[in-house]
Design goal:
The structure holds 2 protein chains of 2 kinds. Chain A is built from 2 helices and 4 strands; from the N terminus they run E-H-E-H-E-E. Chain A has helices spanning 19-30, 44-58; strands at residues 8-11, 36-41, 62-66, 71-76. A 4-stranded mixed beta sheet of chain A has the order 1-2-4-3, covered by helices on one side. The two termini of chain A are 16 Å apart. The relative contact order of chain A is 0.24. By secondary structure, chain B is mainly alpha-helical. Chain B contains 18 helices and 1 strand. At the A-B interface, helix 1, helix 2 and strand 3 of A face helix 2, helix 7, strand 1 and helix 18 of B. Strand 3 (62-66) of chain A pairs parallel with strand 1 of chain B, so a sheet runs across the interface.
Chain lengths: 78, 410
């Protein structure tokens, strides 16, 4: 059970739309409720538009942390 | 009697002013598209990936405004109708086929012709490769497709035999290019697109509200707080603060603000360029594709002498080339000044190959369609033609297929 709830980290630096939201969507489908998907991206449209839109559509909470030249986006599956 | 096919400059512009306006327009286009993350392909992919329609709705608003306002300006006599329909080109099977290939390739490569250029200027290596792929795609088109396509155009096989007023909806619907027929057509074409755009955006917002969606939590880090353009305003003070953040490049432009500015940009060249040149926004896919010709010249290879399409294509120095150059300058300036510029190489190297391959399809598709999503589709709405109406669903179908393919590739 503990193993299932580990964060899954995906490095999407250098990738542009629609890869971030498609990757997130596919990963989230395979994850178990309570698990968090962590995406590392430097693509602003993904941070400002597509990933928040995906999280809103799915009804999952999302947080975004700016870490200099990369954003850490966390989406927790409900 | 057939409508005239001689341009009528309505204003006594100097050529210097015309070129200056096109340079300014290109700069605005690059700047706003970069700051607004404006991408036709992304607006379409989001319909299938995140099931959200707000950005696609923004595109519908853009097309609707572009049809309505220029049409009304012609209807009241500010711009002669001939300046609106003069540059309508042939229409036929190739627009449907080309737009489908283009949509597929652009969604695979990660950018339409507009976003390819502004993202390349923002440091996305994948989009550089897409641009090179586009040159190769253009060469494939020129050698393998163009001779056949030209023969069908000349024979009128699933194709018109001419452009101009032949493809002008006021003439097709009312057999007239009078102000009344142009005005009526502008309303018939523009208003439904505007209403559809508003409906799509409201539908998405209502869906989010119904789901009780929470706004993203944004934590300040080394680079400060990221502010979502999805967030709704909560009052006058909030709007002023947000406007300030947009002006100071701390926040991206919202979809609808970018839509309105891009529409005004189109209107600028529509009026200033009327009667002088191609008075619409252009992403000269033809010139982008022809870069291969110029790259090979120092090596003694002159495609213009051996391949008919290169020989008969556009000259390199004109207002549209100036616009594209200034688009890149505008996008780079916006990217650099906002701190977004960075050389970005995908961690997964096969994305570079996919970008190049997608670029080949982009080059092939836009040339078969005789234009890209801006130079043909968006522009044609402002020309009150029907090529944009053929291009839109075909491109959407290509994007849908690309999304399916990419789901398997990921």
């Amino acid at each position: 059970m503990e193993k299932n709830l580990q964060d899954e980290v995906v490095d999407l630096r250098g990738e542009c739309c629609p890869i971030p939201e498609m990757t997130a969507s596919k990963k989230l489908r395979k994850m178990t409720p309570g698990q968090t998907l962590v995406l590392l991206t430097d693509h602003q449209p993904a941070v400002e538009v597509t990933l928040p839109a995906l999280a809103k559509t799915l009804g999952y909470p999302i947080s975004i942390q700016n870490e200099g030249d990369v954003y850490r986006v966390r989406i927790t599956k409900r | 009697m057939a409508p005239p096919m001689i341009l009528e400059p309505p204003f006594l512009d100097s050529l210097e002013l015309v070129y200056l306006m096109f340079a300014l327009s290109g700069f605005i286009l690059g700047w706003v598209a970069q700051r607004g993350n404006y991408c036709f392909v992304n607006a379409m992919t989001s319909v299938f990936t995140t099931k959200t329609y707000d950005r696609f709705g923004g595109l519908m608003l853009l097309f609707g405004l572009s049809a309505l306002v220029p049409g009304l300006l012609v209807a009241v006599g500010v711009v002669p109708s001939v300046d609106q329909y003069y540059f309508n080109y042939f229409g036929g099977w190739y627009i449907v086929v080309g737009a489908f290939i283009f949509g597929f390739g652009a969604a695979i490569a990660g950018g339409c012709n507009l976003s390819m250029l502004y993202r390349a200027a923002s440091g996305y290596v994948q989009n550089w490769l897409e641009l090179f792929g586009m040159m190769v795609g253009t060469y494939i088109f020129a050698t393998l497709v163009w001779p056949f396509q030209l023969s069908t155009m000349q024979a009128g096989l699933l194709s018109t035999k001419a452009g101009g007023y032949v493809e002008y909806l006021p003439y097709d619907l009312f057999h007239s290019v009078s102000g009344a027929s142009v005005g009526a057509t502008a309303v018939l074409l523009g208003v439904p697109f505007i209403l559809f755009g508003v409906y799509l955006q409201r539908r998405t917002q209502a869906r989010f509200r119904a789901m009780g969606s929470v706004e993203p939590v944004r934590a300040a880090g080394a680079g400060g707080v990221v502010v979502s353009r999805e967030r709704e305003s909560t009052g006058h003070g909030s709007a002023v603060k947000r406007a300030w953040r947009v002006l100071t490049l701390k926040e991206a432009m919202g979809t609808n603000l970018a839509t309105v500015v891009l529409f005004l940009d189109l209107l600028l060249v529509f009026i200033v360029g009327a009667g002088y040149t191609f008075n619409y926004l252009v992403i000269t896919s033809s010139d982008g594709g022809r870069f291969l010709e110029y790259i090979l010249m120092p090596f003694g290879v002159n495609l213009a002498l051996t391949t008919s399409w290169y020989n008969s294509s556009l000259p390199i120095v004109d207002t549209s080339v100036l616009m594209v150059i200034m688009l890149i300058v505008g996008a780079f300036s916006a990217s650099y000044l906002s701190g977004d510029f960075k050389i970005r190489i995908p961690r997964e190297r096969r994305r570079l190959a996919i970008g190049f391959g997608g670029g080949i399809l982009v080059g092939l598709g836009v040339r078969i369609a005789l234009g890209c999503n801006v130079g043909l589709m968006w522009t044609n709405f402002a020309q009150l033609g029907y090529d944009g109406l053929l291009f839109l669903p075909s491109m959407l179908a290509g994007v849908a297929l690309a999304v399916k393919v990419q789901e398997h590739l990921l």
